[in-house]
């Protein structure tokens, strides 16, 4: 698939037609899917790639010399190349295929952080992290006596960059930051943070789960040390993802998971391990899922990530203005630089009740803490309602959403 030139106007209706599920009805209404930050829908090319793999090529990877084994291995390894291009990694050997962001961050926690941390050390994250970029660090802190700290944010939902930098003391052995917040939509200034970390010799991990579907990603330009993403938010299958890490880090990291595929030689008294990235890929992976992820990456590239970002920026502006016109609605997350995520509260209405009533109208939004308890604590709320958009969403859907909010509010009194 070749990329559509930037000059060709983006047509969300044309893209929608590529997603079979978006044509369905929910509770007697056309589906409006605004839960993309949770998981994105899959284009036909992804569904067909998974289907074709099982119909025509299914075999295990890196084990069999037969034709199917070779086909499966080359299809699987081709996705490593695609991911390397997708994030502009210097080498395909720096791409570890994981089940998602959660496994990617845990790999860094157990293979990189755990062997290095000692009592008195610190790991620095931010108040706007997903639990996936909090809990693994807490677990390794408990085992080492290190401490997890979080840099503060402003009420608008922007990271206090100066405070983050001040907190990068010599005690800090690793920093972690979300590229795009799954609750606030805030796009963090990763380049600046990476520069500050590098100047102090502190490795920086970036959680790119919510950035990858919305923004072009260039790990070399960002200057970070680790970048994690998950395939299912990127229009690919669940159970797929990636950890990119600088070669020198991977080379120095012991394996965290043991088993088949990650060894050079196993003796009962001692095992030697494969080189990275295979050292971190024990066991049989989600082969068909990765083949589907490869198709998703091709699909996204064929639209063009700059075009996606430009369209979503425009749609976000439209949706923000529309929601601001709703009386009693309070937006949570009004950073200057945002991706297409809108969290909000409405006076007198519980987020879960609203989400249930909206579902009756065929509108899928998420209510809850969004796996970001510390952020909810910061705002002093138990939950928000979140509408998260993708390039296949339209202004007409935003209008229908706002009209539905007005109707369901009346029902709630
Ligand atoms: N980080 C962020 C910012 C997320 O939004 C999510 C998913 O909601 C994750 C991490 C975890 O991703 P996964 O469950 O696919 O590993």
Explain this structure.
The structure is a single chain. The protein has helices spanning 12-16, 44-57, 67-86, 101-116, 135-144, 161-166, 190-199, 219-222, 247-252, 287-303, 305-324, 351-360, 373-379, 395-411, and strands at 25-26, 29-30, 32-33, 95-98, 122-126, 147-151, 172-178, 204-207, 226-230, 241-245, 263-266, 271-273, 329-332, 341-346, 363-364, 366-368, 384-388. The chain folds into two domains: 12-30 and 304-412, Aspartate Aminotransferase, domain 1 (Alpha-Beta Complex), CATH 3.90.1150.10; 47-301, Type I PLP-dependent aspartate aminotransferase-like (Major domain) (Aspartate Aminotransferase, domain 2, 3-Layer(aba) Sandwich), CATH 3.40.640. The protein starts with 11 loop residues before the first helix and ends with a helix. The chain has 14 helices and 17 strands. It has 413 residues and is α/β, with parallel strands linked by helices. α3 packs across α10 (287-303), α4 packs parallel to α5 (135-144) and α11 (305-324) packs parallel to α14 (395-411). The strands form five sheets. Strands 4-10-9-8-7-5-6 form a seven-stranded mixed β-sheet, sandwiched between helices. Strands 13-14-17-16 form a four-stranded antiparallel β-sheet, covered by helices on one side. Strands 1-2 form a two-stranded antiparallel ribbon. The chain binds pyridoxal-5'-phosphate. The site of pyridoxal-5'-phosphate (PLP) has 13 residues, from α4.
């Amino acid at each position: 698939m070749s990329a559509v030139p930037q000059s060709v106007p983006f047509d969300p209706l044309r893209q929608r037609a590529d997603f079979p599920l978006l044509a369905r009805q929910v509770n007697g209404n056309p589906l409006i899917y605004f839960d993309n930050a949770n998981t994105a829908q899959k284009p036909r090319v992804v569904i067909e790639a998974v289907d074709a793999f099982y119909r025509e090529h299914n075999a295990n990877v890196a084990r069999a010399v037969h034709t199917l084994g070779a086909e499966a291995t080359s299809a699987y390894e081709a996705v490593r190349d695609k991911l390397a291009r997708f994030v502009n990694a210097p080498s395909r050997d720096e791409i570890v295929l994981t089940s998602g962001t959660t496994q990617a961050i845990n790999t860094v926690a157990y293979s990189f952080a755990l062997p290095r941390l000692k009592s008195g050390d610190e790991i620095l994250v931010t108040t706007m992290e997903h639990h996936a970029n909090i809990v693994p660090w807490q677990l390794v802190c408990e085992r080492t006596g290190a401490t997890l700290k979080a840099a503060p944010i402003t009420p608008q939902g922007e990271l206090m960059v100066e405070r983050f930098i001040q907190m990068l003391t010599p005690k800090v052995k690793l920093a972690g930051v979300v590229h795009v917040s799954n609750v606030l939509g805030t796009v963090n200034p990763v380049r600046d943070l990476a520069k500050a970390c590098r100047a102090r010799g502190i490795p920086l991990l970036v959680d790119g789960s919510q950035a990858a579907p919305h923004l072009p990603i260039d790990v070399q330009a960002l200057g970070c040390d680790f970048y994690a993403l998950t395939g299912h938010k990127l229009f690919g299958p669940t159970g797929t993802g990636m950890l990119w890490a600088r070669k020198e880090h991977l080379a120095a990291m012991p394996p965290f998971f043991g088993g088949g595929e990650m060894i050079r030689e196993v003796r009962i008294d001692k095992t030697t391990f494969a080189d990275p990235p295979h050292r971190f890929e024990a066991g049989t992976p989600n082969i068909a899922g990765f083949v589907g992820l490869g198709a998703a990456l091709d699909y996204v590239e064929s639209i063009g990530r700059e075009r996606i970002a430009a369209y979503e920026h425009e749609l976000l502006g439209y949706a923000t203005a529309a929601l601001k016109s709703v009386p009693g609605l309070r937006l949570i997350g009004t950073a200057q630089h945002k991706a297409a995520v809108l969290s909000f509260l409405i006076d007198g209405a519980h987020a879960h009740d609203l989400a249930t009533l909206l579902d009756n109208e065929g509108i899928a939004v998420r209510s809850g803490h969004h796996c970001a308890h510390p952020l909810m604590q910061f705002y002093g709320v138990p939950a928000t309602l979140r509408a998260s958009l993708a390039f296949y969403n339209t202004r007409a859907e935003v209008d229908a959403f706002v009209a539905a909010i007005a109707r369901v509010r009346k029902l709630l009194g």
